[in-house]
Amino acid sequence: MERDSTVVKKTSLLKTMVLNAQDLFLFMDKHDQTSLEDLTETKWQLMSSSLFFNKSKDKCLALAQTIRDSGADIVMMTEVGGHESLANFARFVLNDEYISLSLPSNSDRGIDLGYLIKKTLPYELALHTHVDFALPAPAKRFSRDVLRLDLIRDEKIEMIFLLVHIKSKLDLKRADFEGRTRRVHEVKGLLQIYEKLLVHQVPILVGGDFNGHAGEKDTEEEFKAIYQDTDLKDIAFLANIPEEERFSYIYFTRGGNRFVQQIDYLFISERFAHLIEPSECYFPRYKNPSGTPMPIPTRMEQKNTLPSDHYPFLASLRL
After folding, report:
1. 244-301: pLDDT as tens digits
2. Strands of 112-118's sheet, edge to edge?
């Protein structure tokens, strides 16, 4: 997967997006070459023979537009409905501008992890799974995975990405209150993987959906090890993004109360903090087809119209 090395000279920033795509199932096995513009939502759904509904055409297009508008070079995606769905998203919705990489995870819902990598990036790519990484009981394994991507040039690793989707606080079996024990084990397992990779002495970006507040201020208990045991820092914090803008998720209680939270993160070692371009780090907000920003939801009905129930985060590093 080597690319023209002159491309990197024209690119001063490497832009990485963290995005929970919310059930990105997209199966096109019955596609008859009809252009996307000519496909109604009904026909869009009929392109698939899967038991899963395709994510709606409009929401897929809105996600793609958000990626394009940001200029993201690498997208670290969670809630991907397998490699086929991600490959279809890259081919049909992103006009084949990105390479799609994904591997099966331990998810019992079929929501895996995956990367989209712009084809113009001048690197070889290597993907590694940790689905069999042993965790203490009751966890035993990651609920999804820690999916590692290496950027390689001249046979040397130049950057490493670790993508994760930490177990949510749902405890349907009522065996582990708010999933706290499993969540602690998953975070510690993630940090063990990170620590072993420090031997490469290259930037390591750790990101994804943490399903909780992992920021430095008011850190939830399961994430405190990030700051106590490693030199990792939240890029949104290092970039001095105002607190009121630092959110990726909106939560509504049963009583209708609204809370904004940052639960999607991208971490980097303080050692490499100088690589961050703060002016190009932000939480992109979604737009409608005409390019007008969609309102930040104040009601659940508005949230349901968004292309995902998470907002992405974009971080830019100087090469």
Report:
1. 999 999 999 988 899 999 999 999 999 999 999 999 999 999 999 999 999 999 999 9
2. 98-103, 112-118, 74-80, 13-24, 313-318
User: Scanning the structure block, which residue is given the tokens 């009809």?
Assistant: 34
| 30, 150 contact by CB (below 8 A) | no
Quick check: 115 and 75 in contact, CB under 8 A? Answer: yes
Residue 38 CB-density burial (10 A; 0-12 exposed, 13-18 middle, 19+ buried): exposed
pLDDT 10s digits, 230-241: 999 999 999 999
At 110, is the secondary structure helix, strand, or coil? coil
Question: Alpha-carbon distance 213 to 208, whole Å?
Answer: 12
State residue 61 phi and psi, 5-degree precision.
-65, -40
Rg of the chain over all Cα atoms, to the nearest angstrom: 19
CA distances from 186 to 103, 106, 148, 197, 245 (A): 19, 13, 15, 17, 28
CA distance readout (Å), 266 to 17, 63, 269: 9, 19, 11
Domains contained in the chain, CATH given: 14-29+36-318 (3.60.10.10)
Partners of 20 in the β-ladder: 78
Distance, in Å, from the CA atom of 150 to the CA atom of 1, rounded to the nearest integer, reads 12
The two three-digit tokens of residue 119, written as one number: 């084809």
